[in-house]
Amino acid sequence: MTRRRLLAAGAATALSTHAWAAGSDKPEKEEVKVGFIPLTDCASVVMASVLGFDKKYGIRIVLSKEASWPSVRDKLVNGELDAAHVLYGLVYGVHLGAGGPKKDMAVLMNLNHNGQAITLSKKVADKGAVDGASLAKLMRGEPREYTFAQTFPTGTHAMWLYYWLAAHGINPMQDAKMITVPPPQMVANMRIGNMDGFCVGEPWNHRAIVDGIGITATTTQDIWRDHPEKVLGTSAEWVKKYPNTARALVAAVLEAGRWIDASLSNKVKMAETIADKSYVNTSVDVINQRILGRYQNGLGKTWDDPHCMKFFNDGAVNFPYLSDGMWFLTQQKRWGLLKAEPDYLAVATQVNQVALFKDAAAMAKVSVPKSPLRSVKMVDGTVWDGKDPKAYAASFKIRA
User: Is the pTM of this model over 0.85?
Assistant: First the structure.
């Protein structure tokens, strides 16, 4: 039997990782340029480099801080970046040519679950809009143009924001104005009154509270507990050309995620590392509170959230479930970002590199789930299990 088939047969323990870096399994490319946006959830990619997990697998991660998601998209498409910390829905949008360049793409792994939020401005909070129901009431009672920001049209934050608004009877395409703002610019834009609310990753929701300009209306884990968020994305062409490198990259990032989630002290050390100006460029306390699950909403309420941002969670975070990818397609269809009905399962199977992930997980000694589909219950009570995506996409009363 070949070494790879041995691994697939569950004999991973019999091989050291060194075996993978030798002979035909040696990474084709030793230097891997990986882009990231200044957000807490870039942490496993950053720590894989900082802690040297990349070297263990025979590669060197070269980090590249990017200014916006369109910049990440363009650099992945033109090959300036080998891979990136990127929005799940962005990868699918590019793959299908939704609102931009079309190129066959690949999701190598999930980087994190949970840990985003929807922030409402102090201005609307002072008028009683502190959650979805009270926001809907204010918008009905005081009609004007309400503006909400997300970070990329086909991205995760757009989908959480639209889903949450619609769950409270607000049609994001008809009842409000939607704008796109890069994550690090959200707080500054809210400060000068450019928006009534935004959906973004941390630490920018907590930063809005610290700066006294916004409140947390909901967390994304309250919309979908243990939802997928950022992924390690690249082009299909890159995976085909450098399969061993792709596997090594996934294994290194898996190890970094496992290290972060292993202890509170590791999380604090991670927060101290990524707060630096070369990464997220903010104060450590703005990052570490929500990483430790310590939440406040800016109105005096505090709570400990066991479903805060996770990078590994005993391996549950990182598997690229086909049903997760398909869910983003259903929402892109719902909101008119996809004109034609895609072949949901075929697209997800093409994009999500399940077999490659399983090989990398074997290298890092991480267990994988039996099924590539999972079932989830959303904030509005609907259940998504990936079994009939076409019917699911058509089932929503509020849509574009």
Answer: yes
